[in-house]
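Lab notebook: predicted structure, single chain.

Context: the supervisor wants predicted structures on file for every construct in the current expression panel, including those that have not yet been purified. This is the next one on the list. No modifications to the sequence; it matches the entry in the shared construct table.
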Amino acid sequence: MSCQVHFQVMWSRLISVVEEQALTLVRTAFSTSVREAGDLSAGVFDRHGRMIAQAVTGTPGHVNTMAAAVPHFMADIGPERIRPGDVYLTNDPWKGTGHLHDITVVTPVFRHEEAHEHGGTGADVDGEPAQPIGFFACTAHVVDIGGRGYGPDAREVYEEGIRIPIMPWIRRGVLNTDLVDLIRANVREADQVVGDVHGLATCNETGRRRLIEMLDEFDLDDLDDLAAFVFDRTDRATRDALARVPTGTYRNQLRVDGYDEPVDLVVEVTVTAAGMDADFTGTSGLSPFGVNVPLTYAQAYFTYGMLVALAPELPNNFASLAPFTVSAPPGVILNAEHPDPVAVRHVLGHFVTDLCLGAIAPALPDVVPAEGAGALWNFQASARAVDPASGLRPVELLMFNSGGTGARPGLDGLTATAFPSGVMTMSVEATEQIGPIVVWRKEIRPDSGGPGRRRGGLGQVVEVGPADGYRFEFSAMFDRIDNPARGRAGGGDGAPGRVSLDDGTPFPSKGRNPVPPGRTLVLELPGGGGFGPPEERDPADVDNDHRQGYVS
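Prediction complete. Output recorded below exactly as produced.
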């Protein structure tokens, strides 16, 4: 028992280490998507590249893909070439998080780096190269990565920006200035992007230093025993949670807007004593536009959905992720392969959670909510001076917005809340501070939540326009305009979304669009579906909905 208590204390300490790692990234990031929305991930891994712990701050699309990324770093760099003082990075969609705009940084941890830090060779006492005892990794979305800019219009990944293979950012303590120059020459917001990469490297360094202090305090040489304890306990708890779902095969289908034609997402979830597998056979084929989803990203949101339904209290690590697998034939939109365009893979990828939760809903009728808005309503604005001679600088800015979540069996849905991505809302003040944009309106959208015994979460209305002297274009990457969130168990559908000018002129849901001078852009975000028959709603809740202005 005393040994278990000792491990539990060390586990709590390790969690504090990764939380400080993530907080360092938030505090040092240049991009508002990281500082304000928490669009990031951070975690610590054992010597084999298995994630032991992650920070609470972070999105499933970053965390769960990062968990799969570290072994790619180890294989591509080669164990014999990993040295103290190294920092590696990539934005490869198939070895990272699914698109070029996310940069993943990995830092090896060595038990004794003092020799390196004072000019030594990084060798152990026998003269052999020192071996890392673990790794820190982190990921963040950067505001620009070159190419066409953040949007779905490219036809190949080559058009979407600069693709950086796994390579050193810092080599034995020396910054790779050639890579810095290469990035600066290929992106529109060079200071922001390079600053964010430095922030990623700094966040890992914070984790590394705190971990060494922890190992010194507990007189440990490595993380092996602690990792084994964490994995063993997590594995048993995950298997117990899986036992709640009867073995068998569960199916679901979900239609979403897609780019130029609807997309049908199809899943067959097979539950066995060993785990769960999601097979996406039957899903629509690849799109010629950048809404395709690498399979690793689809797996991230399948796994997340199953864990929040079955065991939301469990830590997220190698052992909790291992029982969940995915498969898909080549050529379907959830299994994009190089060089398919994937820039806005989140739009369809976020629907994988509702798709798979809907499949197991018959087995967990008191747990699974109705469908929600799903994908974030991000838009990337390119602000340019109306008069090129004015001296006003061009600006790229990214804004996150969320619709309503689906109603839960026992509670109403959440209003303007990002699920399943989990990112926080970006404040108006922060958005206006970083670029020439004015947010004229940001308010709850009445009547957008689906009716039911439990009401769906409400969307919001956001109206934005350029500041004086500027015009702007924006990349639309929206969904749930033609296919609203469906209710469950007799609940009504949520309201569909809409995107238009302030005079009512509609815009398409995907692609790059100009906002004419003097006009503003109006986003009406979709609501979540309701749960249960509307006539069963408590009259007191109905009265409150009217008093609060949630329904008219």
